[in-house]
Write the structure tokens for this entry.
Amino acid sequence: MLSYRNVKKLTKNIILIFNIIAIMALAGSYLSQYIPPDKWWAPSLLGLGYPYILAVNLLFILIWLMIKPVNTLFSVLAIIAGWGVLSRFIQLSGKESDTRGIRVVSYNVKTFTGTGSNPSRDLAEVIKGFLKENEPDIICLQEVRLRTNKVFNLEETKKEFSDIRHYQYARSGSTIGIVTMTSYPIVRMEEIRFEKSGNIAICTDIAVKGDTFRIFNIHLQSYRIDPDRYSVIESPGISDERKLREFRELTAKFKKAVEKRAIQARLINKKIRQSPYPVILCGDFNDTPASYAYKKTRGKLRDAFVSSGKGIGQTYIGKLPSFRIDYILFSRKFKSSNFRIYDIPYSDHLPISCVLTPDS
């Protein structure tokens, strides 16, 4: 029979083993952003799960504080090693400024269906009201219903704004598309089509007080998973054949989405590097800040949330991928301030905004 001392020692060793596993998972989540999912997709699961893996490591810190404080160093050092990733999820200070710059708003409007499944003109009017209140200079919308003029009419909408006079749009199919609206004259437009995908991006060059800036409005590959199917993940077991089949289908869709996003992110990165002008990039990446898609798309651009945001950067209120998947990125020509995430229930995404001030 084991003595109390031996039981205590064994318990500590078991906790240490699980702690090491959690640290390895955390390290894997850091590395996943460097591994192209179209070459090896499995590590992207760790990137997606980073906030939860982080929480587990924080739990181990609390446990060690109670039984052996020196062992807290394991998880503490692991978290510090990934401080750059953590800062993309949480910001403490924020940056406010009264300087008049370029006010940018990005919003995935979910085809104006809100929490339902049918497009609503009333909801489109509410969203337009929100946009008008914020008086933006640049509006980037994703998942816009463009098939008919009954729900969202671009010409009518343009007339309702005091300053917005120019726009570009493109459909990814017969119904859904992407829209960039701006108060600045448009001097060039380009559509970026992703191969074998219903997602899309557009590129808009605008003239601003003698300068030209390039706006990218992007919507990277969606998971295309029915929210009801997430119950397979949430359920305690997948022992029966139906659940096992659904789990395999879910995994296949996840794999397909991250692989396509990797290819799309590399294309956008190439387009950004080829730009002769400073870049403003807005969009729904459908992936977290710990992902390959984020890192590759961002490249050398700055992140408005990291530069001037505050709090926990959650922009998606669906089940997965939760946390921040909508972004405003920009070239070093700009400085960012007044980053906001608006907690309004008009879509499964939350709108974001910031003020960008060009360097003189």
In short: The chain has a mean pLDDT of 90. The longest helix spans residues 241-274.
